[in-house]
Amino acid sequence: MGTRFEKVVLKALRAPDFTLTAVGVTEVTPRLRRVVFSGEKALLPRISAPTSWLRLWIPSGGAVYQRAYTAIDVDPDAGTFACEFVLHEPEGPASRWARTVAPGDTVEATLFGSDAYVDDPVTPALLCGDPASLPAINSILSAAPADRRLTVLLEESHDGDRDMPVRDHPGATVTWVKADDNGQALARAVAGVPDLAAHRCWVAAETGVIKRLRVDLKAAGIGKQSLTVRGYWIKGKAMGTAG
Q1: If DSSP codes are grouped into helix, strand and coil, which group holds residue 215?
Q2: Domain positions in the chain
Q3: Does CATH number 1.10.10.10 belong to domain 2-114?
Q4: 152 has which bridge partners?
Q5: Euclidean distance between CA atoms 235 and 232, whole angstroms
Q6: Distance in angstroms (rounded) separating the CA atoms of residues 95 and 107
Q7: What parts of the chain have a pLDDT lower than 70?
Q8: Which residue blocks in the chain are alpha helix, DSSP H?
Q9: Are 129 and 154 in contact (CB under 8 A)?
Q10: Model pTM above 0.90
Q11: Do domains 2-114 and 125-233 have the same CATH topology?
Q12: Architecture of domain 125-233
């Protein structure tokens, strides 16, 4: 589906458009770039909840590509928020854009379909992902009450992934798992979580890994109301749609 057609559809559905301006760029690690944007006042309250995301329309080579990113560290007083870009290989349009973006550059964004994480103050949480979903996991950790029990399992596939910062939380246990074929090591780590069936599970990673974990978690007794699954990227494929 072309980007122009997608934009027409989103307009018909009254999805609001915004123009974002980069005001700061930081290399967090060699594979992770953090871009701070100034956003319109009408946008910030709508992306403040954990895991909220928006579509960025990334220009590249005369085309435009849509890609979804989590909004983190929303600061209504300063009028800013941040997105973090994992620099994937093969490199796609978003990675190329993130490597070269500078303060003052602008990008279009659309807010449509963003679903915020709803915390359960009683049930322990399992957060399972990888560097691509780490910003969303960090947004959950930042918002969780201090007495919340959280188990965080993160799949690492490149040297230096463990250097990506995970937000501190007094009730969180964080474990990095070395990636292998089809997420088998991550699946074993999930299966080893004590009293797994009692957890509220939020899982986001590569689509092949997600398919396996969805089956395993359902088999472990995780009900539909306690399971959120998101495919964030596809192995070997540059994400986004050209227009």
Answers
A1: helix
A2: 2-114, 125-233
A3: no
A4: 127, 174
A5: 10
A6: 14
A7: 1-16, 113-115, 233-234, 236-243
A8: 3-12, 93-100, 134-143, 184-191, 207-219
A9: yes
A10: no
A11: no
A12: 3-Layer(aba) Sandwich (3.40)
